[in-house]
Amino acid sequence: MYGVGVDIGGTKIMILIADQAGEIVYRKKWSTSGDIGVISGYIADSLRAAAISMEQVAAMGFGVPGIANSEEGTVIDAPALQWNHVPFRERMRRYFDKPIFVDNDVNCAALGERWVGSAQNASDFVVVAIGTGVGSAIMANGSLVKGNDFMAGEVAYLVVEQDVLRDRSNAFGDFGLFERKISGLALSQHGAPPQELFELYARGDEKAMPIVRQFVADLSIGIANMVSLLNPQKVILCGGVAQSLSTVLALIRSTVASLTPIPTTIELTSIGEEAGAIGAIALAFENVGMIPKGGRT
User: Which fold has domain 2-110+273-287?
Assistant: First the structure.
């Protein structure tokens, strides 16, 4: 039996099909869409291409870039897709008569890391996703922390003293104050893509050096506060920007260590951009009992 994992992003949709052991048998990226009918078509095309029948599919999982009520199967708010209080499970079941589960994309990434990634032996860890925007997922005592309104881990809204002194504020629908400092969109405003900025920094470029040092300082403050609050075994960095952080990872580690005495391990994702889609499969498999809540079979 197989699971289908769909990571619905603001710029692309990643579809993976994997078996119960976590072996991926099919992967493909598609252009993003907020049309559930279009997304269902992508899934049907993927199953045909993989030569997998619906009878072989045990369940489907979906990660969305926003706030999801994973219990009811609804998407409360996903601005990138223009979704607001969408009964996602109900609508997707019009196309597929299968168990369907949906959660925030970073929560899914955390499940993926625990199933086949960097957190297979960890029950307390944090995933920080740095892409166009910024988000996080919190795994505590082996369970995802969701929060009263399914908004736990919205680190985009973290504030520091300078934000208060400059009378800055956070609001839904806007980029958060922390997000405006470390996101891919924020870095791109310096005239070069994030990957290029980090490459220039590694070569000692005078313009890139202060930009990247400020990024490291801002990110390290956020991570240090999370570590002090949650005492995670690991902090795992993922997302498009995180893929370029190998040159500054040692600096991030040392800066965080100087800001909090609480020890942790900081590392980059081992499953890369597929973490969300792999985690969507883990979400589905866990909920139908095909893998234990806590990792591999």
Answer: Nucleotidyltransferase; domain 5 (3.30.420)
